[in-house]
């Protein structure tokens, strides 16, 4: 998972990194990622994520952040492909009535 800066593009490779200051005054180095084409930072823990997103709209009024989830497939548990698929249930058939119900 990476945090990316929305709206900042690297025109012709001029800026290799942007340093963002969090609300706790810790600086985070967002580096240009060629694969996803955004400035990205990979946080180490939830505290860093909260600190970066708290700056949005306070310290940096025109800078917005988002999360980029890796496109790696989720690991499937062993034997999940070998399990038979369940068939959908059939509708219950209505039973025929021998005598009509008398109305009052």
What is the secondary structure topology, with strand pairs?
Blueprint (H helix, E strand, L loop, with lengths): L1 E5 L10 E5 L5 E7 L4 E4 L4 H10 L8 E5 L36
Antiparallel strand pairs: 1-4, 1-5, 2-3, 3-4
What would you note in describing this structure?
This protein is mainly beta and 104 residues long. The protein has a domain at 2-68. 10% of the residues lie in helices and 25% in strands. A 5-stranded antiparallel β-sheet has the order 2-3-4-1-5, covered by helices on one side. A hairpin with a 4-residue loop joins strand 3 (27-33) and strand 4 (38-41). 7% of the residues are buried. The mean pLDDT is 79.
Any key phrases for this structure?
1 helix, single chain, 5-stranded antiparallel sheet, mainly beta
Q: Describe the strand arrangement of the main beta sheet, using strand numbers.
A: 2-3-4-1-5
> Which class of secondary structure composition applies to the elements?
mainly beta
Distance between the termini: 69 Å
Mean pLDDT: 79
Number of strands: 5
Oligomer: single chain
Report the sheet with the most strands, covering strand number, pairing sense and barrel closure: 5 strands, antiparallel
Low-confidence stretches: none
How many distinct helices?
Answer: 1
Rg calc: 28 Å
Shape verdict: elongated
Helix content: under 10%
H-E order: EEEEHE
Percent in strands: 25-35%
Quick structural overview:
With 104 residues, this protein is mainly beta.
């Amino acid at each position: 998972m990476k945090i990316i800066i929305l709206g900042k593009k690297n025109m012709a490779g001029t800026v290799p990194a942007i340093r963002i200051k969090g609300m706790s005054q810790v600086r985070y180095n967002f580096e240009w990622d060629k694969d996803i084409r955004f400035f990205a930072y990979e946080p180490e823990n939830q505290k860093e994520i909260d600190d970066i997103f708290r700056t949005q709209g306070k310290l940096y009024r025109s800078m917005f952040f988002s999360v980029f989830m890796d496109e790696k497939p989720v690991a499937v548990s062993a034997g999940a492909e070998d399990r038979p698929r369940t068939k959908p249930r059939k509708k219950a058939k209505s039973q025929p009535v021998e005598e009509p119900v008398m109305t009052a």
